[in-house]
Amino acid sequence: MASEDVRELSLKGSNGSLTFRTTGVGDSLPNFIDIEVEAQGFRGNAYLEGLDTQFVGFVRELEERFAQHRGFAILESLNGNEMRIDFDKLGHVEVSGRIRNVGEDATCLQFSFGTDQTYIGPLIIQLREFIP
What we know:
Order of helices and strands: EEEEHEEEEH
Mean pLDDT: 79
Number of strands: 8
Radius of gyration: 15 Å
Number of domains: 1
Strand order of the largest sheet: 1-2-3-4
Structural class: alpha+beta
Largest sheet: 4 strands, antiparallel
């Protein structure tokens, strides 16, 4: 029986952070992605089942926007969770999004924090490792 593989990486900013965790088996595609956001004392989690074309497309778009130092890359889940990374030519990066609780209370956490483009290159390298 193959052992379960858990991988984690983080992107930290001036007043927040994102943490990506995947769970998979061996060299197969991760079957679960947990994105945890912490911004100005608030915390929320978004869950994605499997590693589908949306996630792969997000990583590719992030690579392109990082190379151009402008534009944005966005990751949206079917249940309304969203994460967006915006670039400007001055080297600023804004990470924003929303995480919805689809339960009875239907709450929504909207977040935003700034970071520096120097952190994005290593993030992209690590995100690529999630894609076999």
